[in-house]
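Query structure, 242 tokens:
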């Protein structure tokens, strides 16, 4: 528990047997619940996560969003939720930098920006850089939201997350959260985070098919948001990065 608030961490994982224990070991001791959602691994991911001290859930439906939603359903009694990938590309030891702006009342959602941080050379692949740029450009033009990244390492107030009514069960999870946060008036900020080369092969950006599917889904989510509601202009509760 941190400053009297219950903190839960959700880590979707698919074939991350070599990385998952390192991720869990670097999560700060003040975190109350660590949940690893195994999304159909065929290796020892689930066993290694359990041995490292995490609660392991199983989500048979493949998809990043589906795994996150499964974790959310389990952690229904926490005040803040943190999402971190299971491939050790994010640095869980930086978690306080995401959580503290929420605890202090300065933000409802904090995105860990790899673009503002210091990514290791080669950690962000060209297709990731291009996809991030395009998505952030569209969100800025359509919703007046000055995001720099769709980084998966993020923290959000649980009560705020429940208001977003998250639906995407695949690659569009992160952009759906960011668009809905702006449209529904949440206070959002970004903080710089480090980013390193992942352990193992990426299931999305590491393949041409995965990259194309992710890009299509991200654009579909943004387009759907435009059709579903009229974007707010002016003050949308977004705080520019420091």
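Result returned for the query:
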């Amino acid at each position: 528990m941190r400053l009297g608030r219950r903190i839960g961490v959700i880590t979707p994982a698919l074939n991350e047997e070599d990385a998952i224990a390192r991720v869990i070991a670097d999560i700060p001791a003040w975190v109350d619940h660590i949940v690893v959602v195994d999304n159909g691994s065929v290796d020892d991911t689930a066993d290694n996560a359990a041995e490292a001290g995490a609660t392991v859930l199983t989500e048979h439906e493949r998809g990043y969003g589906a795994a996150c939603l499964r974790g959310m359903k389990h952690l229904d009694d926490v005040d803040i939720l943190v999402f971190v990938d299971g491939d050790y590309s994010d640095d869980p030891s930086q978690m306080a930098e995401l959580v503290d702006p929420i605890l202090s009342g300065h933000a409802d959602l904090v995105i860990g920006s790899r673009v503002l941080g210091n990514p290791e050379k080669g950690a962000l692949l060209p297709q990731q850089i291009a996809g991030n740029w395009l998505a952030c450009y569209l969100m800025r033009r359509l919703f007046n939201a000055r995001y720099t990244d769709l980084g998966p390492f993020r923290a959000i107030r649980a009560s705020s997350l429940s208001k977003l009514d998250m639906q995407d069960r695949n690659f569009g999870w992160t952009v759906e959260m960011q668009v809905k946060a702006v449209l529904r008036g949440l206070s959002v900020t970004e903080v710089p985070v480090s980013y390193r080369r992942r352990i193992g092969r990426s299931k999305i950006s590491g393949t041409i098919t995965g990259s194309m599917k992710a890009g299509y889904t991200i654009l579909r989510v943004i387009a759907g948001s435009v059709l579903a509601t009229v974007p707010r202009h002016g003050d949308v509760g977004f705080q520019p990065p420091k």
